Amino acid sequence: VKLESLLNNNKNSDFCAPLTSFDWNELDPNLVGTSSIDTTCTIWGLETGQAIGRIDNNSVTGMVRTQLIAHDKEVFDIAFSRAGGGRDIFASVGADGSVRMFDLRHLEHSTIIYEDAQQQPLLRLCWNKQDPNYLATMATDGLEVIILDVRVPCTPVATLKNHTACVNGIAWAPHSSCHICSAADDHQALIWDIQQMPRPIDDPILAYRADGEINQVQWAAGQPDWIAICYNQSMEILRV
Q: Model's pTM, two decimal places?
């Protein structure tokens, strides 16, 4: 293994703000997006190693700025959407408790998808693999998974509430738009069927209890019968 490229957009200092997350564009493998505690998201073009788009949320103008101040704190996650051809649209979440959606073709504008009522920091987001209208997010130390519909901004279409300790990971099924897995500090990995939305989703359809606090979950894209979880010093592969 060798270092192929070092992406650094900080040209004026020996130090740069820590990155919190990144996402590789599935349609265009030359695009990588990163998020940082300095309130910015940066989109990189790997062919040239240059930043092709950078959003400083403190300087966003237009409609978004007049509605609310968003991401004036740390940005914790970024993820590309498959909507609009799968190349140009991405979303971010941050310490200000909001979800924002951007379009690389129109970076002067953004869309507020959701704001946490208590302004709790939002830690992660995950796009539905089959229906790009839906995404899931979760708050720091939150017990719930929030399902959002970008066509109905600011109002969750479902809230998944069965965890008894903070949620650490979420993963949509690669083959179904109606199934999502959540994992938490309560040792549980829960699979939910959300096809009844907007009616309440009261209980998961499957549950697994691990021997420790689950800190990450991934649903295999090529083998949708398998889910991987990790906790303590262990990784387990579960058959659905």
A: 0.87
Q: Write the CB contacts of 33 (distance below 8 Å, at least 6 apart in sequence).
A: 22, 23, 25, 41, 42, 43, 44, 78, 79, 80, 90
What are the tens digits of pLDDT across the range 23-43? 999 998 888 888 888 888 888
Kindly report which listed range (72-76, 174-178, 191-195, 222-226) carries the lowest average pLDDT score: 72-76
Average pLDDT, the chain: 87
Residue 83's closest CA among 7, 39, 26?
26
Which DSSP category does 87 fall into? S
Question: Which pair of structure tokens corresponds to residue 145?
Answer: 């998974």
User: Residue ranges of the alpha helices (H) in 9-83?
Assistant: 63-67
Name every residue whose Cβ is closer than 8 Å to that of residue 107 and which is 6 or more positions away in sequence: 53, 55
Instruction: Tell me what percent of the residues of the chain surpass a pLDDT of 70.
Output: 87
Per-residue CA distances from 43 to 7, 18, 32, 90, 180 (Å): 10, 16, 6, 10, 27
Q: How far apart are CA 90 and CA 84, in angstroms?
A: 10
